[in-house]
Amino acid sequence: MRQFKLISVALLVSTIAHAFFIYYQSQGGFIAGPNDGLSQMVPFKHFLYETFHKGNLVYAEDFGFGGGILTQLAYYFSTSVVFWLSVAVVSLFDVLGLVTPDLDMWLRLALIVSVIRLAVVIVFATYAYQLFNVRTLHAFVGAVIYGVSVMYIRHVTFWEFFADGFLWIPLLVIGLERIIRNGRADFFIVVSAIMLINNFYFAYINLVFVLVYVLFRQFIHLPEDRVSRKQQWLLYSGSGVIALLLSSFAFIPATYGFLQNERPSLEHEIRWIQLDNLLYDSNLLILPAVFLLFALYRPLYRHVTFRLFASMSLLLTLLHFSPHVGSFFNGFSAPQYRWEYLASFTIGGMVAVGLTHWRFEKTSFFKTAVVTVLAYLGFGIFGNAPWPIVFGMFALMILTVLSFWLKPLLAPYLIIASCLIVFNGYTKLVLHDLSIIDTNETFVTSEHYNSAEQRELIDVVREKAGPLERVDWMIPLRNNTPIVQSFLGTSLYSSILNGHLLTFYWSDLEIDMRRESVSRYGTLGNRSNLHHVLSTPYWMRDKAIASEAPYGFKLLAETERYAVYESATRLPFIRTTSNTYSREALKDVSMLTREQAMLSGVILEDGSETPSPAQTITFVSEPVNAVWEDETLQVTAEEGGVDFIPDVPDSATGDLYVSFKIRKLEGDDFFIRLGNYRTTRKPEASIYRTNFTSMTLRTPLEKNVPLRLPEGTYVLEDVTIEWEDYATLEDALEEAASIPDIPVVWDGPDIDFTVEDATEGTYAVLPVPYERGWKATVNGERRDVLQANYAWSAVSLDEGRNEVALTYRPPFFTLTTGLTLFGVILFGSYLVLARRLQTRIFFR
Predict the structure, then answer these.
(1) Which end of the chain is more exposed for a tag (fewer CB within 10 A), N or C?
(2) 155 touches 165 (CB < 8 A)
(3) pLDDT per residue over 643-669, tens digit each?
(4) What is the distance between the alpha carbons of residues 758 and 799, in angstroms, rounded to a whole number?
């Protein structure tokens, strides 16, 4: 009955905390940030649900160009306990005909999941705080401080899976206390293993907290402690090993996916201190007034449990001000502030213990009250917080102080009310000031996200396209449009990507994406050669830029605003060739030469031939509203640059490839327009820069090619112009026409095809991203899957008939499966041993 009451009250408080979200959703809005929320969180949940229901648990051919689910989506939802529980419930409701699991449903479900998750967090934290001889009401107050925090709002709104991190800290503390007090590690092992499976990134953050907690507990002893330090460390290390073994099947592939991802190193210096007004308007961590009151109240420090939580809280609060700590918790990368929920937990514990041990001592209280009021006055006057927030937070502080002076029994209820007021106040702020107000039914059905007009043309492509043919289309800034609109595309946005694909875009082929940014790839730069090599015969755009269609593409269909074009020619999905080029030999050639090598053969690590270079042409440069001297280009007007006048015959057809290196000396962002094609570059201080300054842009063949930039000073160097007459492509098409089509079946992790009459030294080349985990057999015999054309796959064939089967399994599948099974045996053995000995060997 007591547990039922706790759960009921937790659900009530969670529901009240979500009051503004509930109202907003009733008016047609959704809990999802307009950027990552709509671009990643909701699409990935919908995508994974559909993928799992197709039976694909480890690989998806429609995740961008294709990708491993454990390696590239474990950071998000593919191993999330909360998501899998959601999938189970939705699947049941789907079978019963109660829901339609489309994108709209996942948008609406986020609110229900958030309410339940927060209630569970409160219950878990209440149980954790009760271990320290805290009254249930006071433990509940501390749990509300922990869960009903601005960090929870921030996480659940912008990056929903981050909010799952709140679940593990209370459970880990319960597990650690069982080790310290009773010598039993079973609970800690189970929680740690599930946490490692759930999300490797937050497992890292949480395990750092475990280390901090354990170190503090080495010096702060409680009367309940019964296990010696040496025995504790043996249990910590042993249980950690078993947990890692149990989670190996998921944790190791996920970690490998993170390590093979490409992310440019941070080049600008990280500041040592970043100020933040924690009393009023921080969107990361707001200190409740009771925290400051208790931290200054000396009588509470007589109690060892208060000293434990207070010392950790003060340390974590101070660390919040250091971007270096944010970098540490982000894997020593750019500072990210995602760990502050750790401070919320220790603050909640500090308040819970403080409430239980509160005794009014007049002199100490009045000193504390005066300092608290002065601190709030100082932060309010000099902290630059909006005045409505200052008045509101100051009033809550005064009420908190008065409650401890006049009526301490009211303090817990006032603290809960204050948390709910602040939570809802910041929810309203998030909805309006941070543009979440734009995430509504109107927006998600608009041309900015997923309009009916766009889907109409996609349906036209679906009816005409082959089963593995792709369409180059994405809504600007929405690289996951193919996932949202359910088609095979050429773009993807995810924090963890196949690193080979990223370098393929950034440096191997220098494919411009119309917008410089990490963690994404998108479009093929309107380059017809790449469209043929990567089986992408469809190209869709807004009509305003339809003139940029790749060479050889003709109008297929159009609506009032959009047009889709189709290539008049195709290369087969599986290409066979015996011409091999060495990747090393192509190290210093142009991007166009590399494209042509991919058409006439295959680029391998140990290729044997050298391709013919592309046609470089001379040109004349004429500055326009600019001065260009010694590779320094100064644009003197609002827009200016250089006109390139290439020396090509009047009868020439095809495209030009213009390559150059460019950076802006002022360091801010800027656009680049070549002909009618426009792209952007980020400021040098941005943590989302690729740090690559070399570019290759395709433009239709014209007598005058204008390069335009905004006003400023640039370094513009190594300009070359090449002429692509598509003779190499025509030769490849002619050769492919003489070879019978190769039927291909690609179903998630399995690809099957047969090549008839192959000659010795022939390779089958596939537009399937090269990724560790692919295995191949040729006529039943094991064969390596080779990294080909920088980021793609190839298999060597035997002479004659070749039955080829490719199968994907997560990296180190056999090893990690064995480790997990070994972990199960060890854990079972530990449970048997612990039960037999009844833990007596661990006691002093």
Answers:
(1) N
(2) yes
(3) 999 998 888 899 999 999 999 999 899
(4) 5
User: What 3-state class would DSSP assign to 646?
Assistant: strand
pLDDT at res. 743:
92
State the residue for tokens 């009032």. 560
Per-residue burial over 678-703, b = 16 or more CB atoms within 10 Å of its CB, e = otherwise: ebebbebebbebbeeeebbbbbbbee
pLDDT per position as a tens digit, 482-497: 999 999 999 999 999 9
Query: Is the pLDDT confidence value at 691 over 50?
Result: yes
Model confidence pTM above 0.85: yes
Residue 290 CA to its chain's centroid (Å): 35
What are residue 359's phi and psi, to 5 degrees? -135, 130
Mode of pairing for the β-strands spanning 538-542 and 471-472: parallel
100 to 107, 114, 364: CA distances (angstroms)? 12, 20, 61
Q: What is the pLDDT of residue 335?
A: 80
Using DSSP's 3-state secondary structure scheme, residue 716 falls into: strand
**Sequence-ordered list of residues with C-beta below 8 angstroms from that of 248, at least 6 positions apart, any chain:** 815, 816, 819, 820, 823
Please tell me the predicted confidence (pLDDT) of residue 762: 94
Report angle CA 764, 767, 770 to the nearest 5 degrees: 90
- Give the whole-angstrom CA distance, residue 346 versus residue 311: 9
Burial letters 151-182, b for 16+ CB under 10 A, else e:
bbbbbbbbbbbbbbbbbbbbbbbbbbbbbbeb
Q: How many Cα neighbours within 13 Å face the side chain of 302? A: 8
Distances (CA, A) of 703 to 553, 649, 797: 21, 10, 46
- CB-count exposure of residue 137 (10 Å: 0-12, 13-18, 19+): middle
> What digits encode the pLDDT tens for the residues 386-395?
888 889 999 9
User: Which residues are CB-neighbours of 446 under 8 A, at least 6 positions away?
Assistant: none
More confident residue, 407 or 134: 134
Average pLDDT (742-752) is: 93
> From CA 485, how far away is CA 490, in angstroms rounded?
13
357-367 as b/e, with b when 16 or more CB fall inside 10 Å?
Answer: beeeeeeebee
| Token pair 């039927």: residue | 743
State the Cα–Cα distance between residues 126 and 144, nearest whole angstrom. Answer: 9
Whether residue 286 contacts residue 279, with contact meaning beta carbons closer than 8 Å, is answered with yes
Does residue 20 surpass a pLDDT of 50?
yes
Q: What is d(CA 418, CA 410) in angstroms, rounded to the nearest whole number?
A: 12
